């Protein structure tokens, strides 16, 4: 029952200040966030690449309130693309972006986000990589998918994230299961009302499997974003059933979570991409990670008790 509380706390400025000021927080955050600086994220990329993994990088920042912040986030991603190009890591690393970080929630936000994200997608292509549009709460889905359609006219490799807990997602999977489409399927990590999303974990899991069946049977490239052993096993079975080779899909997991499982899948010949967040605006991401799994919250509370 703590999940909804933590998700609500993820958007509370007062709780943000308390958590950020706690001496214990930084060491625990380091488990889930690669660092605050670009060079720290590049170190994580190289380390994971040496272990046979690929990565997707997320410069943390969302729910901005100022167009100037959107420009700063755009510039941070342009610097990231330049670093990937300079280091020759484009074949191992892609970029994940939240359109709220590019101004999507501001007045005129749809056009503003498209205007700000376009040069990032262009820079990614020049670096030999691509961009995946992260999905946020349900109010952003239509805008995000419309921006995806526009970007794919020039950059068809641009990917999207779909969340199985939303009632609409099976239809969205059908729309995005065509040739060339790249879709990361996740369960969902925002507090959503019962009018638009499943609330029971079992229903979310069932929806995930239904969505995964659609994507695996389609002509696109499914990206299985899950740490759930059952979903990983089901994905492997569906890939086999649909005649997919290891190059025809990939698994994705978060930095710092189930690292042994990540390595196991690589050693079995699967493609594994690790989601690496970095940057100073880590609070919202951190709280969602605590909400997703009781083990993450227990880890944090044990650290509080030990260091207290």
From TrEMBL:
Ranges of residues in domain Proline dehydrogenase: 44-299
GO annotation, biological process: L-proline catabolic process to L-glutamate
Binding-site residues, FAD: 135, 163, 187-189, 201, 226-227
This enzyme's EC code(s): 1.5.5.2
Enzyme class: oxidoreductase
Protein name: proline dehydrogenase
Catalytic activity annotation: L-proline + a quinone = (S)-1-pyrroline-5-carboxylate + a quinol + H(+)
Pathway annotation from the record: Amino-acid degradation; L-proline degradation into L-glutamate; L-glutamate from L-proline: step 1/2
Keyword annotations of the record: FAD, Flavoprotein, Nucleotide-binding, Oxidoreductase, Proline metabolism
Highest taxon of source: Bacteria
GO molecular function: nucleotide binding; proline dehydrogenase activity
Species of the source: Streptomyces noursei
Record text on cofactor binding: Binds 1 FAD per subunit.
